[in-house]
Amino acid sequence: MRLPCDLQSAAAALLLFTSPALARRIPDVIEGDNLDDKDTSVRQVAIIGAGAAGSSAAYHLRKYAAQYNVNVNITIFEKTDHIGGRTLTINPYDDPSLRLELGASIFIEKNYILNQSVEEFGLRKKDPDVGSDPKMGIWDGEKLVFEIDTSSSWISQLWHIVWKYGIRTPKRTNDLVQETVSKFLRMYEEPYFPFKSLTQRAYDLDLAPATGATGEEFLKANNIYGAYAHDIVQASTRVNYATNIGRLHGLDTMVAMAPAGATAVQGGNWQIFQKMVERSGATIMLNTSVSSISFAKTGSEDTTSARYRLRAIHSSSQEDTSYPVEFDNVILANPYQFSDINIADGVLETHIDEIPYVRLHVTIFTSPFRYSPGFFGLENSKALPGTVLTTLGKTDNATSGVAGAGSAGFFSISMLRKLVNPKTQKEEYAYKIFSPEKVTPEFLSRLFGVKVPETFIAEPNDQSSAEVSPISWYYPHVFYSYPKAEPRVTFQDPIVGAGFYYTSGMESFISTMETNALMGKNVARLIVDDMRGVESGGVQSHDGSLAPGQQLKMTCDRAGRGAGKGGVRKAGEVPKTRPTELPEMPLVDL
Ligand SMILES: Cc1cc2nc3c(=O)[nH]c(=O)nc-3n(C[C@H](O)[C@H](O)[C@H](O)COP(=O)(O)OP(=O)(O)OC[C@H]3O[C@@H](n4cnc5c(N)ncnc54)[C@H](O)[C@@H]3O)c2cc1C
Ligand SMILES: *[C@@H]1O[C@H](CO)[C@@H](O)[C@H](O)[C@H]1NC(C)=O
Ligand SMILES: *[C@@H]1O[C@H](CO)[C@@H](O)[C@H](O)[C@H]1NC(C)=O
Ligand SMILES: *[C@@H]1O[C@H](CO)[C@@H](O)[C@H](O)[C@H]1NC(C)=O
Ligand SMILES: *[C@@H]1O[C@H](CO)[C@@H](O)[C@H](O)[C@H]1NC(C)=O
């Protein structure tokens, strides 16, 4: 069974790859311009965004193109000066030789695409940065409701859990996680891969009952409730998705509890995506923000010959210019609502819905101090956990956003690792806080039991900030980190126009580096199959067989509201929307 020490490492945890079909090697990338004579028609593909999804799309496009002997020319546009998007590192003490993950920090061996890439690219794995103190506690704003020492023996940890929560509920939870994850894993395999409709796959793979219910409802329907769900599962959804189990859907809840063995790449996870981009042979336009997309020729709305014209702004000039190459395919690989792109009328055949995202404050800092025992209602520092996850207090309501943090006020605090301050040569600790609001000096003063002056919250590179103890270095950042992921049974599908693809619908289903990379790979496959004239990505028909290329007709989808409001429901409501042509699927008995 899994131990709560894995809670911290649960985020990316998803994929138990056992299928040998998946290990099938795709021919290596042909380096250089080995474009042959047979096919002079080169597909011009634009990818907007070089995060997990866009990088993976480029990398897999190149692989599939080599495998099937078709020509693609890939151009990636990236607004920032780096590859990786929400996967990025920062340098504590502004020392370039030190790196800490600011965004996506962990994945598991069974995240097939990432794990395989790490091996292929010769990157090195390391333990995630949570190891400097083996003690973990769950705080409800008043008291520590659970504590465990992950350096103690396996059996003693097990005993500790069983003593507090019994054996059946943890076991049942574990079984449910395994079952749900194994359903999801089929999405990597034929006939479920590739896919034109995420909504369809949610039904095909019997995952709609998980996405259509809150974590709490989904657990209850599976006979899991009480203190274990409230403490352990909820601490896990809060650290991974900044959301309580009464709000987050069941699939993300399972992901947050998914298997152990989390890992990270030495020097930063972003290197996986950097290598993917390098291997793709794409032209990469950094510091280049796409500002608009339109048909290249007016009147070419004729979908068979659609070619797109992009305009982009380079950060150095701020000038909005037309990109010289016209594109056959566009892959929009970032949440559209944050992309600041003007898409001309008629280009999108499916409306891309706005999705409510979590606004998460991630604060990393260094300090010579350890937490004050008094903050957690403890007598002395012996029992102090380095990692403090949180759950709701007795009188807290399971709302979302700032109120959702409850009396604890934050989602997690972890002591990442010990570092030597280059200025003082003294050992200090690096901490990370996830919170719904800005961390205040008042909060830090209470946390450490020392006066943290108001002046310490200076800009990251402000020299004065380095001088002020007890916080020796400070880096605050705000992310639109992931969707709030309230229950829903329809999702934004990846094809949104003629030859126009969108990856971020995946985020409302499961938001991780791996799943977004999977969507990038899926889109790459759909494009290459389209070039080959092969119908793929079809849906399962009523008798269970696959009808290749068959388009899912959904009232809400084709009306241009695919993942629309109709698909979102409030917690507590039984999901009503169901794709009309699908077989009856038993939803969880709520
Ligand atoms: C704090 C935090 C912790 C997380 N922890 C984990 C974790 O431990 N494990 C895990 O697997 N996942 C984790 N996640 C989630 C994970 O980071 C995301 O799911 C994933 O990285 C998203 O990848 P993406 O490619 O879809 O989007 P992004 O990474 O957001 O990439 C989109 C890219 O598009 C670019 N872009 C946007 N607009 C334009 C434009 N107009 N023109 C050009 N470029 C543009 C952006 O600059 C960005 O680089 C975490 C996320 C956060 C914020
Ligand atoms: C590929 O795209 C780049 C720019 O994005 C362009 O400079 C180059 O000429 C294109 N190559 C081919 C073979 O079309
Ligand atoms: C991008 O911009 C940054 C500064 O904002 C600069 O340091 C970097 O060299 C630029 N990179 C490219 C490829 O233009
Ligand atoms: C993950 O990668 C390692 C090599 O880094 C490999 O030995 C292992 O088999 C991979 N795991 C899976 C599940 O693919
Ligand atoms: C929770 O909600 C109830 C009913 O709306 C309200 O009375 C109570 O004050 C709320 N609790 C907190 C801590 O906000």
TrEMBL record:
The signal peptide, as residue positions, is 1-23
UniProt cofactor(s): FAD
In its keyword annotation, does this UniProt entry include Magnesium? no
| One Pfam assignment | Prenylcys_lyase
Name the UniProt key words of this record, in alphabetical order: FAD, Flavoprotein, Glycoprotein, Oxidoreductase, Signal
Protein family according to the UniProt entry: Belongs to the prenylcysteine oxidase family.
Q: What is this protein called?
A: Prenylcysteine lyase domain-containing protein
